[in-house]
Write a structure and sequence with these properties.
- The protein is mainly alpha-helical.
- The chain folds into two domains: about 50 residues; about 70 residues.
- It is built from six helices and no strands.
- Helix 4 crosses helix 5.
């Protein structure tokens, strides 16, 4: 494996230790970047993102910064996760409201549900 990445030839040719470490560091950075890109493609289905601007209260911004610092993740990561969660919840809420207002969809009481489930 090391031959394929060029480490073997450089170490054998007598490159100073710092040059080898620098080369390894750059290669690891490149690999980390490629893995991150692949993860983004798999996890979110895309690589590119759209920048938006929002205004939030100062106390909320401070909490966001604290969480970002504690988790060593950017604030945008946490905003994105929160927005994804909110959008999923609002979609579920809309389905529930649609079913509530649908007169052809019967409302099941707790007692009826317990009887059906034999609880």
């Amino acid at each position: 494996m090391l031959k394929g990445w060029g480490f073997y030839g450089k170490i054998r040719s007598g490159l100073p230790g710092r040059a080898v470490i620098f080369h390894l560091k750059n290669t690891l950075h490149f690999l980390h970047t490629m893995i991150t890109i692949q993860y983004n493609k798999i996890h979110w289905g895309y690589c590119m993102s759209k920048a938006i601007s929002i205004r939030i209260p100062e106390d909320l911004a401070l909490k966001l910064s604290d969480i970002a610092k504690e988790t060593e993740r950017p604030r945008s990561f946490h905003v994105q996760k929160a927005l994804e969660s909110y959008l999923a919840e609002i979609a579920d809420l809309q389905v529930a409201l649609d079913r509530l207002h649908d007169t052809s969809d019967p409302i099941v009481t707790t007692d009826d549900m317990r009887k059906d489930l034999e609880l």
